[in-house]
Amino acid sequence: MLEIRGLNKTYFDRMGARQVMFDVSLAIGPGEIVGLFGENGAGKTTLLKCILGFLPCKGEILLDGRPIDKSNIQRLSFATCEHSFFPNLTPDSHAEFYQMQFGTFRRERFRTLMEFFELPRRKALKSYSTGQKNQFEVIMALCQGAEYILMDEPFAGNDVFNREDFYKVLLGILEPEETVFLSTHLIEEVERFIGRAVLLKEGRIAGDVSTLELEEQGRTLMEYVKEAYGYRADRVNRALENLTGV
Predict the structure, then answer these.
(1) How many distinct structural domains can be found in the chain?
(2) For residue 17, is it within any domain?
(3) Three-state DSSP class for 183?
(4) Would residue 145 count as lying in a domain?
(5) What is the DSSP code string of 6-28?
(6) CATH number of the domain to which 51 belongs
(7) How far is CA 222 from the centre of its chain?
(8) Number of helices and strands (H, E) in the chain?
(9) 10, 59, 110, 175: which has the highest count of C-beta atoms within 10 A?
(10) Full residue range of the structural domain in which residue 53 is found
(11) Long-range contact pairs involving 217-224 (C-beta distance under 8 Å, separation at least 24)
(12) pLDDT tens per residue, range 37-79
């Protein structure tokens, strides 16, 4: 169980203190596929980086009741659109490095996913396109052997067909104990593949619902998100009226 208890995050710069996360509490159990949604600046990336210890924060972040440190950090992996690989190395060299670092590295899964995305294994990653780099980032997060796989906008730069097929492959390869916490703006695309949706708004939890619950209510995830955010359907017409003077 990954638990976040009363997480608060404040940034300090020359303008002073700016709090961006407010008393966020969340628990994610083994085997869940959880979507993390929110507007730009809602705190999605900050939350993920706090969980991984990349950013200092206040509150508790526990893995099976223990703080995350050097003894258990290998149980988490991270796919980020900022990229975390060595651009001058090839994918095969990365796989060898990961095998040395992680005894749980899934070599066969690595081979299968590289073939699925049709990525060259002996070319330096700096020669990859942006979409290919993002695909490789996701592959390494999935192959590390971690139980909790965090992803931050992993599908940026990928076409809709690649994304659709990848969701299906993802469901097919995950083991029962593997957990995915996925930050994305692609709400309607991932609705069929996640089991739970967590919404962030201005650094606070604005919603937390299972997709089964929404299905039983006859509501779509997009409808739930719009309601949680207080979306105004007339905002476009109002803007056009102001611009055209109608």
Answers:
(1) 1
(2) no
(3) strand
(4) yes
(5) EEEEEEEETTEEEEEEEEEEEEE
(6) 3.40.50.300
(7) 18
(8) 9, 10
(9) 110
(10) 32-58+65-244
(11) 220/188, 220/191, 221/35, 221/187, 221/188, 221/191, 221/197, 222/187, 222/188, 222/191, 224/197
(12) 998 889 999 999 999 999 999 999 999 999 999 999 999 999 9
